[in-house]
């Protein structure tokens, strides 16, 4: 029974998946809602939105919030990541004990949020809120450090799930979740471990992040129609909708998974990355790095473009991204491009979590031989020449999926997901 790929590397299997998105908690709820074309975008109620240009997002209402607790981004990321990991480990049959490998965590950059800043200013009063006064006010406040330290979430999760070695935390903009998976896959391929826990999580729906993306003119302002606001590949698209969530994949060498009798949900057959260093936020409009990332992933998988059954799009709904992704698809696949769809039309852009969430959905598409739709496709854009699976899911033969993740600053990672090899 074959356990290595064409390059002699261990084949990397997925034995557990966990999901948290605005569509719900757990794989079953999310996949059912996605195939039904349900939108998880709603009006923001977590904080005041007076005078903001965008007042909608894909938010996850955690149990703690129903009890009145206010969660900033860092504890929100930790909570959603833990929920996704618990589900994935349970499905893999690895819950309840120490995990036999490292944690690869993709998460957003961490910063002090407005609640912390207001509290610092209060503690510094009646002194003016100078840097010196704020520094003194932060002295003896360990909770502030623990909330704002980048490594805290990874260390907390590693301790909780008993992963081996030091956790690796990474942030590569919107490619972060895919980067976390790639790190786990490559560690297994190098023979450093038999298993890895890969998580992508983001909880950045907070005022300052919303304002920053708004100032970049990146967000949809279709506030009067939340469920119709995210419109990837559609003629009247006007920007992405911020969102949050988490996904976890349990990765194992195929030999290790089969030896313990685990159910194989699919394999991560290839990964490719390419950056362009064109601009701090924009990718090069010629799509060169995006094209190469896609080609690298397909080549790494030992496949040719014609082998790809379906592409899980980056598909943010910004005019520039969707046009560039269309250009890249034609450059890689020519006239015979496979169907492509964007789940961001339903869950919004989950930023650092998106690559992991979309990898999970790609595996489910293979499992059920179903293509999720791109909803809100009212008026086709003549410049988008692809089959975007408009509005309604579709049964199809799905063997190999290319999952695209293109990040700000030209950070691009693509994954090839496939069914269990014979």
UniProtKB/TrEMBL annotation:
<dbReference type="InterPro" id="IPR020841">
    <property type="entry name" value="PKS_Beta-ketoAc_synthase_dom"/>
</dbReference>
<keyword id="KW-0808">Transferase</keyword>
<feature type="domain" description="Ketosynthase family 3 (KS3)">
    <location>
        <begin position="9"/>
        <end position="419"/>
    </location>
</feature>
<dbReference type="InterPro" id="IPR016039">
    <property type="entry name" value="Thiolase-like"/>
</dbReference>
<dbReference type="InterPro" id="IPR014031">
    <property type="entry name" value="Ketoacyl_synth_C"/>
</dbReference>
<dbReference type="InterPro" id="IPR014030">
    <property type="entry name" value="Ketoacyl_synth_N"/>
</dbReference>
<protein>
    <submittedName>
        <fullName>Beta-ketoacyl-ACP synthase</fullName>
    </submittedName>
</protein>
<dbReference type="Pfam" id="PF00109">
    <property type="entry name" value="ketoacyl-synt"/>
</dbReference>
<comment type="pathway">
    <text>Lipid metabolism; fatty acid biosynthesis.</text>
</comment>
<dbReference type="InterPro" id="IPR018201">
    <property type="entry name" value="Ketoacyl_synth_AS"/>
</dbReference>
<comment type="similarity">
    <text>Belongs to the thiolase-like superfamily. Beta-ketoacyl-ACP synthases family.</text>
</comment>
<keyword id="KW-0812">Transmembrane</keyword>
<dbReference type="InterPro" id="IPR000794">
    <property type="entry name" value="Beta-ketoacyl_synthase"/>
</dbReference>
<keyword id="KW-1133">Transmembrane helix</keyword>
<feature type="transmembrane region" description="Helical">
    <location>
        <begin position="12"/>
        <end position="34"/>
    </location>
</feature>
<dbReference type="Pfam" id="PF02801">
    <property type="entry name" value="Ketoacyl-synt_C"/>
</dbReference>
<keyword id="KW-0472">Membrane</keyword>
